Amino acid sequence: MNSAPNGVWQKNPALAWREIDDETIIISPTESVMHELNDTGSFVWKRIDGRRTAADLAALLAENYDVTREVALADTTALLAELASRKLVVAAAEDAH
Amino acid sequence: MNFPPQTPGTPVMDRLIARTVRRNVPLSVHFDLTYRCNERCVHCYLDHEDHGELLTSECLEILEQLASSGALFLTLSGGEIFLRKDLEEILSCARRLHFDVSLKTNALLVTRARAERLERLAVRRVQISVYSSDPAVHDAVTKVPGSLVRTLAAIPLLLEQGISVKLACPLMKENLLAYRGVMALAEELGVPYVLDMTITPMMDGSRGPIEHRVSAEALLPVLQDAALPGCRPSAQKEEDLPAMLGSATSSGMESGAYDDLPCSAGHNSCYISPYGDVYACVQLPIPAGNLRHRRFDEIWHGSSTLKKVRAMRESELPICSRCEIRKYCERCPGLAWMEGGDLLGAYERACELAEHKARLAGVARPQSAWHAECRAHRTKNSGAKGRVYDSMEMTKQGQSV
Questions:
Q1: CB A59 within 8 A of CB A6
Q2: Given CB atoms, is A97 within the 8 Å cutoff of chain B?
Q3: Which domain holds residue A41?
Q4: pLDDT at B391 (0 to 100)
Q5: How many domains is chain A partitioned into structurally?
Q6: Strand order in the sheet with A23-28
């Protein structure tokens, strides 16, 4: 299960997105739906690269924000699960084939 | 890290518009890659000769600059966009830079293979010009026999790929009564559409296309048509709207978030010509700078033209701000400049349409502030010949801002 700490994700390559004013707007072309990430969500989004695990992302979050590693990990895995449910990220292995 | 999904026109879009207006982020860019065209529409405002289009490498560099400036919504158009042989290379670049891409086209050159490639390049929406469901009427506008059949054949090819399609139908003398057919066609296809009553002078100011414009009186049946909501794009999901009066050239970012601003032009949207000229809007052809000579950011933040456009406030318009029927008016600063020679001024077409709309809404003897002023002026100078509007038109040519 990729929402686990060792799960690796990458952004859905079909998406349009832009970071504007510390927030990120994401648009999925198939549904024409707009998603908005706040500052911390944007921080994680920018670092989803198909190589970093959820734990790696959470560690980076904890290094840069006033949050414990435990809370950062819980929030990051929850965010990744939500992103995956909206098809905004795909498991890195899935996209390989 | 919550993030509710939203559709265009919802609070997320309004917040995004408010943020980008406040910081002058060019959220939406309309980029014409060519003015060449394989149709010769009678009302077209473009010169179809190639006067030195941007090279592929220049287009790609411009996209890089736009992305780093915060542009997200990218509309690629023409002329006929598919006449650019490097279109797919440009689209690939736009994909790599994560733009939300829409195309405007007559679709004559859309094939199944091309539609499949557009889907792979994540083109979200294609707006297609359709002037009538009657081939004789449509083809008389485009001057290309068989064009309607070819255009309509392309639509299912795009829809099959999951690409949104929107029909755009500018209304003019040649096709005014055809709009019901276009509405039926859109409903049959299950796609949204826009009926556009705006026919503009050519970008160089010449007024040939205006000959095809329908008089305000002749538009009354359209304005009164119960099948049309007769409204501006509003806070509603676009695809849900059964019909729309609006602008086929608009940025598509109409919102209450603009508050006292006339529109998005120059605030968070702009237009780029095939020659690299940057304008606040395609309907406001006052160049702010050229991308062959300056970077986009320098033009966007440094141009005195754009600063002048950004300084406009609806509440400070010298005449229109005190107009009693202002809420019925869809005054456009670009058309005010093109038709009246004054970015801040009133112009006849907007006043006429506003008066008709106000009358239809039950306002007794509606009169725009400008018309009231003109009439007062004529009374004061009784014996004066002709209409004030005519003299304003004569002074328009060559006027700069």
A1: no
A2: no
A3: 13-86
A4: 35
A5: 1
A6: A16-20, A23-28, A33-37
- Chain B positions touching A86 (Cβ under 8 A) are 5
In a domain, A94, yes or no: no
Predicted confidence (pLDDT) at residue A97 exceeds the cutoff of 50: no
- Residue A37 falls within a domain, yes or no? yes
CA B246 – CA B230 distance, rounded (Å)? 8
Q: Identify the weakest region by mean pLDDT among A1-10, A47-56, B62-71, B256-265.
A: A1-10
ipTM for this model: 0.90
Query: In this structure, are residues B200 and B45 in contact, taking their beta carbons and an 8 Å threshold?
Result: yes
Predicted pLDDT at B393: 34
List, in order, residues 6 or more apart from B370 with CB less than 8 Å away: B319, B320, B323, B345, B346, B351
The pTM (predicted TM-score) of the whole model is 0.88
Which residues in chain B are contacts of A37 at CB distance < 8 A? 1, 3
Radius of gyration for the alpha carbons in chain B, expressed in angstroms and rounded:
21
pLDDT of residue B382: 60
Report CB contact under 8 Å: A25, B125.
no
Query: Residue A54: its pLDDT value, please?
Result: 95
Asked if residue A53 belongs to a domain, the reply is yes
Chain A, residues 15-54, CB within 8 A of chain B, namely 15-18, 20-21, 23, 25, 27, 29-30, 32-38, 40-41, 44
Q: Report CA-CA distances (Å) from B205 to B102, B272, B335.
A: 28, 18, 11
Q: Which chain A residue has the Cα nearest residue B23?
A: A21
Whether the CB-CB separation of B250 and B228 falls below 8 Å is answered with: no
Residue B59: the pLDDT is: 98
Query: Which of A11, A20, A73, A85 is the best residue to mutate to test the B interface, defined by the most B CB atoms within 10 Å of its own CB?
Result: A20
Asked whether residue A7 is assigned to any structural domain, the reply reads no
**Nearest one of B160, B133, B166, B168 to B148, comparing CA atoms:** B133
Task: Give every CB contact of residue B174 below 8 A, 6+ residues apart in sequence.
Answer: B42, B43, B131, B137, B140, B141, B212
Residues of chain B with pLDDT under 50: 4, 230-243, 384-401
d(CA A14, CA A29): 7
At residue B1, the pLDDT reads 58
Count of CB atoms situated within 10 Å of the CB of B28:
24
The pLDDT of residue A28 is above 90: no
CATH number at residue A69: 1.10.10
